[in-house]
Amino acid sequence: MSTTLPIIALVAGDCTGIGPEITAKMLADGAVQKAARIVLVGDVRVIELGMKQAGVSFPYVKIASLADADWSAAAVPLIDLGNTDPAQLPPGIASSLSGKLIGDTLAAAIELAKAGKVDGITFAPLNKRAMFDGGWKFADEHKMFAHLLGHTSYFSEMNVLDNQWMSRVTGHSSLREALDQINEESITDAITLVDTMLRRAGFASPRIAVAALNPHAGENGLFGRDEIELIRPTVDKVKASGINASGPFPADTIYVRAFAGEFDSVVAMYHDQGQIATKLKGFNRGVTVTAGLKTVFTTPSHGTAFDIVGQGVARPGALVSALMLAAKLAEERSRQAALA
Amino acid sequence: MSTTLPIIALVAGDCTGIGPEITAKMLADGAVQKAARIVLVGDVRVIELGMKQAGVSFPYVKIASLADADWSAAAVPLIDLGNTDPAQLPPGIASSLSGKLIGDTLAAAIELAKAGKVDGITFAPLNKRAMFDGGWKFADEHKMFAHLLGHTSYFSEMNVLDNQWMSRVTGHSSLREALDQINEESITDAITLVDTMLRRAGFASPRIAVAALNPHAGENGLFGRDEIELIRPTVDKVKASGINASGPFPADTIYVRAFAGEFDSVVAMYHDQGQIATKLKGFNRGVTVTAGLKTVFTTPSHGTAFDIVGQGVARPGALVSALMLAAKLAEERSRQAALA
User: Fold this and answer.
1) B300 with B254, same domain?
2) Nearest CA among B125, B140, B49, B168 for reference residue B318
3) pLDDT grade, residue B3 (50/70/90)?
4) pLDDT at position A1, please?
5) Contact by Cβ (8 Å): B276, B299
6) Left if phi > 0, otherwise alpha if psi is -120 to 50, otherwise beta: which for B82?
7) Are residues A173 and A29 in the same domain?
8) A125 and A196 part of one domain
9) B13 reaches A (C-beta below 8 A)
10) What is the mean pLDDT of residues A134-145?
11) Same domain, B4 and B87
C-alpha cells in the first residue's frame, strides 16, 4: 500500500448503536483501505462485537503504537484501549457509561492527531446526550473536539451530500443566543471556512449562497434590518476578497435553488434553518464534517439507530462516504501544504 | 344551481401577473361553478384581458349589486368596479399603482363580506411589495384583511397541500420580534385555530404537531429552556382541553414525520421554520388560507409568476383548489352554525 495515503484514525462509535456493525461491514468490504491508511482506535471487544453483529470478519492486528503499523499487510492495525466491555452495555439502549467511553475513545484518537500521527479522524455514530450524561459536558462532539485541540476561534459542523456542503454561522445554542452570535466576524468566518473546505474538496470557485435571517430576507427592511445593515455588507466584503459568495437570500427558497444545482453551499444563519432543509432532502444519508479545526473529523450524518441494532441490517454507506471524505480532505491539505 | 351553495367573491389578482389568465381558465372550465355561487369582483377589462391571455372565454354578466345575481343562469355575475385599466399596467412588471388597485379591489370584496353578502373570498396572486408601495401599508395582505374587518385578536396564514395544514404562531415579523411574540397565549391561539379550521375542513380529530423553538427542541434545556418552561406546558394545557396536539418536537425532523403522514398539521413557531419545509415540499402548488378572521380568504400559494405572464401557459390548478377550499370551509361553517 502506498505510504503517501493519509492516515485516518477510525473509531467504531458508541457500542450500543450500529457503529460497530457498520465499521465491520466497511472494513470487510475493503474499499476504504485503498483510499487511506486506517488505524482502528478503540476496544477489540467492540470490533469483535461488530463483526458478530454484521456476520462478517476482516483481518486486524493489535499494535502498541502507530510506529508498529504495517499497512503493506492486509490486517488493519488496531490500538486496543481495553476500556469498553460491550457485555456490560446492552445494544439499543442509551447509556451514559457508554457515552463516557466513546468520549474517552475519541479523546485517545485526538491525542494521536495532536501528536501528528494521524491526518484525520472518522467516527461511527455516537449519542450526544449519552456523552453529555457520561461526563463530556459539551453541547456536541464538535465543541468537545475543539476543546481537546485547544481551538478557540470559529469552527463549524458541515453537512455534505451529493457534493453540496451545507454550513451555518451558529450552531447548538438556543435561538436567542444564536441571534446574539450573528455578527460580521462570525458570518465572515463561516463563509471563509466553507470556501476553504470546498476548495480543499476540489471545487475551483465554490458557489456559496448566504441565507437571510428574517422572513423574505427582511422584505427591504419591513421585517428586520439585519440583512440591510449586517448581512449584505458582510457578503459584499467577502466577495471583494475573491470568494464567490452571494446573498442574503430568503431562507425559504434558497435551499430549493441550491438543491436544484444553483449553488455548492448554503451558509445558514442558525441551526434549524439549515437542518430543516437538509433533513428533508435526506442529508442523513450524507456526511457530517467538523470543519475549521486542525484535525478533520468526519462521521455519518445518521444516528445510532437503536431500533435496528444487532439485526445485521444496518448499512455502511454513509460511514464509507465519511471515511473517503476524510481521506480526500487530509490528502488535499497535505498537497496544498507541500505547495505552499 | 342550488341556492344553498356558498357565495364566494372571486378577485382576479394583480393584473400585471398571471391572475387574470388563470381566473379565465378556471371559469371557462366551469367545475368551480358547481361548488359555489361565484361573483367576480373587479374590473371587466381585467377579466377580458385574462380571457385573451388564456385564449378562452366564459359567459359573464355585469350586475350592480349582489341582489341582481342570478346563479341559475350560466353567466358569472360580475361587479365591475371600473377602477383598473390594464392598458396602463404592462404585464410582467411590478407596479405600485397596480398594487394599490388590487388592494382597492380586495377592499370592495371585503365590504361585501362585512355586509353578509358573500361567504368567502378567493383571490388570484398579488404582489405584497407592490401593494405596500401602492399605499396599503401592511406587512402582508392578511394583516390588511384583519384591519379592514376590524379584527384585533389572533389570526394566521395557513398553507394547505394534500390535506396537510401548516400553520405558525408568528408571521411576517423580524425573527427577533417573533421571539418576543411567542407566549402561552399566542401558542394556544395558534393550536386552537388549527384545530377549528381542520374540523371545519372535515377532520374529526386533527393530529396537530407543535414545533420546538430551539435546536433539538432545546436538548432537555441544554440549548434553551423555552420548550421546558413554555411550549410543553402550553401543549399539555391545550391537550387537556380535548385537542389532539403533541410536541414540542425538534423542528428539523417534525416536517419529515408530518409529510410521511404522521400528522395533519404542524404549528411552527416562526415563519421560516414552516416555510423552509413547505416550499421544499412543493406547497406552492397548494393553497394559502387566511384563518381566524370572520371571513375566510383563500389564494394560490404561488405568486404572480411575472416570468410567464401573457404566454397562455399558466396553470389554474392552485386557484381551483383555493376556490374549492373556500367553498368547503364556508359551507361547513354554515352547517355548524345551523347545528349550534
Assistant:
1) no
2) B125
3) low
4) 44
5) no
6) left
7) no
8) no
9) no
10) 94
11) yes
